[in-house]
Write a structure and sequence with these properties.
The protein has ten helices and no strands. By secondary structure, it is mainly α. The protein has two domains: 132 residues, Serine Threonine Protein Phosphatase 5, Tetratricopeptide repeat; 62 residues. It is globular, with a radius of gyration of 18 Å. The relative contact order is 0.09.
């Protein structure tokens, strides 16, 4: 008996088979690379109005990789990053449940290996605690944010992300003199192989914040 697949169903089947094969054969770095690449495309090349929906689709992909690799912290970290990004793109109180999901994934990753991906779980959690509203609306906690930023920097002192996000946090806390060295260090961070788009986009964010702080200091 011949079975005719509709193009959409065939594409979905092929995608599932590809994910399954990838999950079986790949290293953690290989597993998360497609998520990293798509995340950068969404953040730095897609119109803002389309980003929340795109992050939603990407979060589903990340969850499939996590489910196939429950002992790996790296996919959990990236699921948390994507959920955090979706929350930021969605905005408002409706994003709080996504932020809570992201926190849960990142906490799970920390329990597996807090140094995975150069301490990225600490950086992402710190950013969540810094930006989510505090009690009674949300779980935001500026003191915990600072604690986690310092843990991230202890693991990855020269990294572009921990230095940028800690610098941004300090700037938001009206501590520009403290923020500047971290932002300048972030700008000089070594390139990450395979993350060229993410690095380029992040440097533009760093330069914009540095320019803003220097203008305000005049």
């Amino acid at each position: 008996m011949n079975i005719a697949f509709q193009p959409a169903r065939l594409l979905a089947l092929l995608s599932l088979l590809a994910l399954t094969n990838l999950a079986i054969a790949a290293t953690p770095e290989e597993l998360i690379r497609p998520i990293q690449e798509q995340w950068a495309e969404i953040k730095y090349r897609q119109p803002e109005k389309q980003q929340a929906e795109a992050y939603r689709a990407l979060a589903v992909q990340a969850r499939q990789i996590v489910d196939s690799n429950p002992k790996m912290p790296e996919p959990l970290i990236w699921e948390g990053i994507v959920l955090s990004s979706e929350a930021g793109a969605k905005g408002g109180l409706g994003a709080l449940s996504l932020a809570k999901e992201a926190r849960q994934r990142l906490d799970e990753a920390l329990k597996l290996n807090d140094k995975a991906l150069n301490g990225s779980a600490y950086t992402s959690l710190a950013t969540l605690y810094a930006k989510v509203p505090g009690w009674p609306v949300g779980f935001g906690d500026k003191e915990r944010a600072e604690e986690y930023f310092k843990k991230a920097l202890a693991i990855n002192p020269d990294g572009i992300d921990p230095n940028f996000f800690y610098g941004e946090y300090l700037a938001d806390r009206s501590r520009p003199a403290e923020a500047l060295p971290y932002l300048e260090k972030a700008l000089k961070a070594p390139p990450r192989p395979g993350r060229e788009l993410a690095d380029s986009g992040r440097r533009q964010e760093i330069q914009a914040l540095l320019a803003k702080l220097k203008k305000e200091a005049k």
